[in-house]
Specification:
Elements lengths: L4 E3 L10 E5 L1 H7 L4 H4 L2 H8 L10 E3 L1 E4 L6 E6 L3 E8 L5 E7 L14 E2 H16 L6 E14 L8 E12 L5 H9 L7
Antiparallel strand pairs: 1-3, 2-9, 4-5, 6-7, 7-10, 8-10, 9-10
């Protein structure tokens, strides 16, 4: 039986990461950071998962659910590519959980490499910020990190495998606990894990 939450660690990137996009609003209004932080190699290494705060206990979280497109139970959906870094309480008392998406394998990665690519990470970054500004409660994107590590994608989906650049999204949510966190327990008769 898998645990619902396990200790997880980002897998360092081989090449130097660089910040390609950020949300000024998230960084200043939620994370209480100033512009000089964006130029800091320490911030970029943190957002890439290359350097972590000592004694920080990071977590990966298992959830499941139904595929919207087909309506069928899909089993475990994640999280095989994200690590929760911890909780931050900002200057106005809001609590936010920070997460790195695309930071490498977790205990829930199954057969995947735990990496995200630039194409899907740009979508993630833009969609989460757009949804928020449309008034839909959702997670927020703080930064998008890219580097020259390459991973293979689309080997099994469309039969056109190609290498793509790795990307990591530093994102925030009030909680990463979701309906699928309960669904997978019920579906697998693991209610005792609650």
């Amino acid at each position: 039986m898998l645990m619902q939450v396990s200790v997880g660690h980002p897998v360092p990137l081989k090449y130097k990461p660089y910040l390609v996009a950020f949300s000024q609003e998230v960084l200043t209004d939620i994370l209480d950071l100033n512009d000089t932080v964006l130029e800091s190699p320490a911030f970029i290494d943190f957002a890439a998962g290359n350097e972590m705060i000592p004694n920080l206990i990071m977590l990966s979280h298992r959830y499941g659910g139904h595929q919207v497109k087909f309506g069928d139970w899909a089993g475990q959906l994640g999280d095989g590519c994200a690590v929760i870094l911890g909780e931050y309480t900002n200057r106005i008392g809001e609590r936010w959980e920070l997460q790195l998406k695309g930071s490498g394998r977790t205990p829930y990665s199954r057969h995947g490499d735990g990496r995200e690519v630039l194409r899907s990470s740009v979508h993630e970054f833009l969609a989460s910020e757009a949804m928020f500004h449309f008034g839909v409660p959702t997670n927020r994107a703080a930064g998008l990190i890219v580097n020259n590590d390459l991973v293979w994608r689309d080997q099994f989906c469309y039969g056109h495998p190609k290498q793509e650049k790795v990307a990591i999204v530093l994102r925030l949510a009030k909680s990463w606990f979701r309906i699928g966190s309960l669904e997978i327990l019920e579906h697998n008769s693991e209610e005792a894990l609650l």
